[in-house]
Amino acid sequence: MIVILYNLRSLHNIGSIFRTSDGAGVRKIYLCGYTSAPVDEFGASRTQLAKTALGAEHMVLWEKKRSATALIDRLRKEGYQIFAVELDKRSVPYQKVKLSDRELERTVLVMGSEVKGLTPGILKRADKILEIPMLGKKESLNVSVAFGVVAYGLCFNSRDKNGGKR
Q1: Residue 166 lies in a domain
Q2: Residue 146 lies in a domain
């Protein structure tokens, strides 16, 4: 699985997603829009990100890209399926998605801004829009928590055949 983080502002959320990505076996994280990289323009570590990543920022490949839509278009041409995580009239509960191990390896999970979510341009490029069913009054979870729920849900739905191991 590949992950695209679009316009995340919290270094703590980004670091947490790096740590969860390592645990879920994510191959690469693309940091798009104003999402910060683990290091600043001078190569210095971002301490708030490192605090929650706990070293995972050195274990998971990452790359900074300006345009999420151009990246999504390129990845689709390379044969990836695009899953956006967003509350939308077209969204389906993430638990309904079952992937083979091969499909999971060709999947891109797109997470958006803590405040504004994903843009219409990104959502229209998604093969599926996934949501997390909520029982309380709040309509969403923190982006790093939502990422963990969906990433692990997709990973372990596809890994049932081999006992949760690759």
Answers
A1: no
A2: yes
What does the pLDDT look like over 8-36, one tens digit per residue?
Answer: 999 999 999 999 999 999 999 999 999 99
In a domain, 129, yes or no: yes
Residue 159: its pLDDT value, please?
59
Question: Checking DSSP bridges between strand 92-93 and strand 81-85, what pairing results, if any?
Answer: unpaired
Q: pLDDT tens digit string along 134-154? A: 998 888 899 999 999 999 999
Report yes or no: 25 and 155 within 8 Å, Cβ to Cβ. yes
Tell me, what CATH number does 75's domain have? 3.40.1280.10
Tokens of 37: 């990289």
pTM over 0.90: yes
What pLDDT is stored for residue 142 in this prediction?
A: 95
Residue with tokens 């309904």: 96
Close Cβ partners of 143 (under 8 Å, ≥ 6 residues apart): 8, 10, 13, 17, 111, 112, 113, 114
* Tokens of residue 159, six digits: 């890994």
Residue 50: both structure tokens together: 């490192």
Residue 57's SS3 state is helix
Give the SS3 label for residue 156.
helix
Chain mean position to CA 96: 18
